[in-house]
Amino acid sequence: MTSTAVTDGSTSALSLVVQKFGGTSVADPDRIRAVADHVARTRRDGHDVVVVVSAMGKTTDELIRLAQDVCPEPGGREMDMLLTAGERISMALLCMAIETEGVPAASFTGSQAGIVTDTVHGKARILEVRGDRLREAIANGQVAVVAGFQGVSTERDVTTLGRGGSDTTAVALAAVLKAEVCEIYTDVAGVYTADPRVVPNARRLPAVSFEEMQEMAATGGRVLALRSVEFARNHGVVLHVRSSFTWEQGTWVNEEGPMEQAIISGVTHDTSEAKITVTHVPDQPGIAARLFGALADDEVNVDMIVQNTSTGGTTDISFTVPRADLAAAMRVSEALGPEIGAESVTHDAEIGRVSIVGAGMKTNPGVAARMFRVLSTEGVNIEMISTSSIRISCVVRARDVERAVKALHAEFELDKPLA
Amino acid sequence: MTSTAVTDGSTSALSLVVQKFGGTSVADPDRIRAVADHVARTRRDGHDVVVVVSAMGKTTDELIRLAQDVCPEPGGREMDMLLTAGERISMALLCMAIETEGVPAASFTGSQAGIVTDTVHGKARILEVRGDRLREAIANGQVAVVAGFQGVSTERDVTTLGRGGSDTTAVALAAVLKAEVCEIYTDVAGVYTADPRVVPNARRLPAVSFEEMQEMAATGGRVLALRSVEFARNHGVVLHVRSSFTWEQGTWVNEEGPMEQAIISGVTHDTSEAKITVTHVPDQPGIAARLFGALADDEVNVDMIVQNTSTGGTTDISFTVPRADLAAAMRVSEALGPEIGAESVTHDAEIGRVSIVGAGMKTNPGVAARMFRVLSTEGVNIEMISTSSIRISCVVRARDVERAVKALHAEFELDKPLA
Question: Which of A165, A269, A366, B155 has an alpha carbon within 20 to 30 A of B28's alpha carbon?
């Protein structure tokens, strides 16, 4: 297992560490100096270091506001050009602060770092990471500071990688440069058994498996974006999620997960979605394909899909979409309704989803029944259910979400460390 | 003469116009929209347009402050990386605003525009302008919006061009793309016979020659940086300095200058310099060369140099330097003083320079005498004098500068238009 405390100086010299710092970690000059101090310490401990940095604090939001002020629907190419100014500022400042610590450093844009993407502005996918200039910088004894979230397209235009993009940059660089670990520094101290704002006695997990982390990220865990976890898993990049405020050991994410597996690792929730129900459609082949094909054509991100068993030759199809996509999803569904013989199309934005995630579920039957019983005891009505081999999700009323999370956290004794 | 009103639609279609907008012209979203409206109008009038833009308002100052907050002496490479974020923001926003007007536009960094410089960070010199992507954009019917002030070095690092750099970018692009005119939009309506803040009845000049503009820029005229005027002259780029607030006709700068030549075109002044005097140095060959060689080695910008006629085998040498360079200049001069046999090295920061500039001087003898008489009548003592064929400069007490400018403006009747 590679998950030793690499930045505490306990491993062999000259291993490469990728350290990614999010916006809150570099929100102001004080924070930038604190991060520079940590990077310099890691370097002096004998590690090569590649740093990936996001834009400072609320910079990206401010730039988006400016854009909306001059243009109702800014084009993707210019929006990407605009937003990439954010990391340019933070990475140059961080470099200066690292050099002030007496450690040589050089900053690189996504383009200079050789992060080549496709041409889909705003959510480009990485096609290739060249990294030659980073290797040169490392060979010269420099800390390479790379702008997160950005790349250059095959058409030589500046692109951004979309939500969680800086994590993806860090993981991609860690994979290509064969880093020992990719440390994701953030404003929380790791991955918790539930959102500590909802469950004050939630416990930090010392380790989770890639599989569990994927399910958590997909169901409302806000610490890592799903895409970067998938990328890390596919390329075998060990992640260490930890705090840039306390610098303590956080949560390791790797293939194995924790040494001792609890039944449930965590409870997640998400109140950012809405539900659409298409009622009484004929129970015939091809109906669902037409509906979800049309939604995909309109770039609506459909999440959960539940179809009831047919009664009297018709069935109801319910699905959830991000609330931002609700209007588009309704437009598509209502337009298609008559064609596919639906009786009605209804929507409901007052829903929430509560999920329990844990690899231990595979070997412990009865977990689902225990979840449903707890919700029933709490008087929480279940509107939709979907499961994977290590996750069970229930759609409930939005107002019931916090109560459900607390009850499930207590039921599975997640506040207690494993013996 | 090419100085027809190209953006009023009066010339042939498809001529190329370069339009440069300074920081105050794009200081906020309202200003950006106003500029976009003007660019779109120029395009619809049948011109191809390349826009060069500076950072918004005080952005550059704010970025410098942030840098100083994390690093006492930021390195040039990172400083350039930081500062170039400013134009990135303004150019992306301007592009969006132009597209909102229904005119296709695309932004280009200095690197994307093919502006290749040497490796001197902070004041790089342009070595080559490739411009292929701009030509492509123009051929596609797009307005090309280019980040001013920046380029990419032969080492593939981001560079900035130093003071007045956006003007230089605009002139260089106008030269390479063979633009009909390079319009420099600013917050004043053109080149004036004197600074209107000092002389309220100063008059806007309809045209000045390159030669006059160079002398004005070198002696305190703040509208254009000297370097960009030199560049324009060397490459025959016609300039039109005008207001982005009123959009009225401004001042044309070209080879010919005005049709009717007055004796004097303008009075300039500069209170940003200090004077150093090295006294009683032996009047021998090589003394001045050693002194100014040493200053040049320390990168001190020496401006005026005056050496008196030798009396008794020794002479005094006086010279002016930007006040920011005074400490360095004194250090060099005092260190060298004993070696070159100087009696003393003194300095004076309370000086100012008043200059009169005009091509008409060449054919009108007695202009200098008239200038000295006016200053004498005003009780202004002249401390140093230097001249060129079309300029006379006098160093006076800083407190006398405004009085001198007003008196000279009146003496040469610069408030009265030519008959």
Answer: A165
Region B35-49: what's the mean pLDDT? 97
Structure tokens at A12: 């062999």
Instruction: Select the residue from A30, A64, A68, A71 to test the B interface by mutation, using most B Cβ atoms within 10 A.
Output: A71
* Cβ neighbour number for residue A413 with a 10 Å cutoff: 13
Helices A165-176 & A226-235 angle (0-180, nearest 10): 10
Q: Do B99 and A71 touch (CB under 8 A)?
A: yes
- Using CB atoms within 10 Å of the CB of residue A206, give its burial: 0 to 12 exposed, 13 to 18 middle, 19+ buried: middle
Q: What is the pLDDT of residues B84-95, one digit of tens each?
A: 999 999 999 999
Nearest alpha carbon to residue B147 among B168, B169, B129: B169
**A15-60 residue pLDDT tens:** 999 999 999 999 999 999 999 999 999 999 999 999 999 999 999 9
Nearest CA in chain B to A64: B93
CATH class, range A14-187: alpha beta
Sign of CA dihedral B278, B284, B288, B291: negative
CA B406 to CA B410: how far, in whole Å?
A: 6
Q: Which of A 150-169 lie inside 8 A of B, CB atoms?
A: 156, 158
Q: Which chain A residues contact residue B33 at CB under 8 A?
A: 70
SS3 category, B411: helix
**Separation between Cα atoms, residue A52 and residue A25, nearest integer Å:** 12
CA-based torsion, A256, A258, A264, A267: positive or negative:
negative
Please tell me the pTM assigned to this model: 0.84
Residue A283 or B32, more confident = B32
Give, to the nearest 10 degrees, the angle between helix B326-336 and helix B287-297.
Answer: 140
> What's the CA dihedral at B126, B131, B132, B133 to 10 degrees?
120
Alpha-carbon distance of B73 to B398, in angstroms, equals 32
Decide the pairing of beta strands B143-147 and B105-108. parallel
Please indicate whether, in this complex, the C-beta atoms of B82 and A71 are within 8 angstroms of each other: no
Burial of B260 (0-12, 13-18, 19+ CB in 10 A): exposed
